[in-house]
Amino acid sequence: MKLNQKVAIVTGAAQGIGLACASRFVQDGAKVMLTDINQAAGAAAAGRLGSGAAFCLTDVSVKAQVDSLIDATLAAFGRIDILVNNAGITHAADFLDLTEDDFDRVLRINLKSMFLCGQAAARVMVRQGSGSIINMSSVNAVLAIPNQVPYVVSKGGINQLTKVMAVGLAQYGVRVNAIGPGTIMTELAKQAVLSSEDARKKILSRTPLGRCGEPEEIASIAAFLAGDDSSYMSGQTIYADGARLALNYTVPVKE
Ligand SMILES: NC(=O)c1ccc[n+]([C@@H]2O[C@H](COP(=O)([O-])OP(=O)(O)OC[C@H]3O[C@@H](n4cnc5c(N)ncnc54)[C@H](O)[C@@H]3O)[C@@H](O)[C@H]2O)c1
User: Fold this and answer.
1) Is the CB of 7 under 6 A from ligand 1?
2) Domain spans in the chain, listed from the N-terminal domain onward
3) C-beta of 38 in contact with ligand 1 (< 6 A)
4) Cβ–Cβ under 8 Å, residues 202 and 100
5) Model confidence at 104: pLDDT above 80
6) pTM above 0.90?
7) Model confidence pLDDT, tens digit, residues 116-126
8) Is there an atom of ligand 1 within 6 Å of 86 CB?
């Protein structure tokens, strides 16, 4: 039970990668506060995970709600050792058509939320003298999808946020790392990039392992970064992408 005695917050935990992280942390002995804007699914998920889990309704892009989430976690479990900044959305629009409102909305939910939750949780971790923050980035921090402009920008920003937090918080014993998933089988991926057979084939043709990932394969990396097995690691982004970022243009693309 590598996360015994630890308390975690996982954002966007009602489904997908966030839910897999929350489940894995509970299995590993942690107490977990799941949080999401989807009250019904989030509360049901926490209920299924048992007495080691609780749910708090939070829009992570709103500071007052983030402050309430921190208070609720301290009231329920007494401390905060791990934060997984996972909540995120996509918005499809070509660059020339994208509206200012949609650009701002995606940046607020995907990037600003990680600053808000990261700062609020870090203040508690600094008082405790230790902590691990994990930001959910993407291969799209470094690879562009032309009709996912604010998503790609937000993920690039998350990689730099991870570094600047890691450097600023190192003196307090707080580590900050990111995970950059490739295509993982969740609702988000089904809507954004796996909407048709043709799209699926394109993705697989650029994924040397020849398959999409499962949420549990990201959760196991989160468990590693959350616990003491990664005690000397901070400021890094770990890419779990089926070797997509290693693929050179000279490698023939399978049809
Ligand atoms: N699935 C993939 O292929 C993939 C690849 C790379 C990165 N990611 C990243 O992983 C993270 C999780 O993605 P997923 O695929 O599990 O998505 P998902 O859509 O299945 O789950 C995202 C969850 O976040 C919640 N959420 C959305 N806005 C919120 C807000 N303002 N406050 C709180 N919760 C909110 C949603 O209700 C949902 O439960 C995202 O940051 C995403 O960018 C996913």
Assistant:
1) no
2) 7-186+214-239
3) yes
4) no
5) yes
6) yes
7) 999 999 999 99
8) yes
Is 80 exceeded by the pLDDT of residue 251?
no
Q: What pLDDT score was predicted for residue 190? A: 86
Minimal-distance CA residue to ligand 1 atom 19 = 188
pLDDT band with cut points at 50, 70 and 90 for residue 95: very high
CATH of 7-186+214-239, one of 3.40.50.920, 3.40.50.720, 3.40.47.10, 2.60.120.10: 3.40.50.720
Q: Is the CB of 184 under 6 A from ligand 1?
A: yes
- Residue 254: the pLDDT is 62
What distance in angstroms lies between residue 5's CA and the mean position of ligand 1's atoms? 27
Q: Is 239 a catalytic residue?
A: no
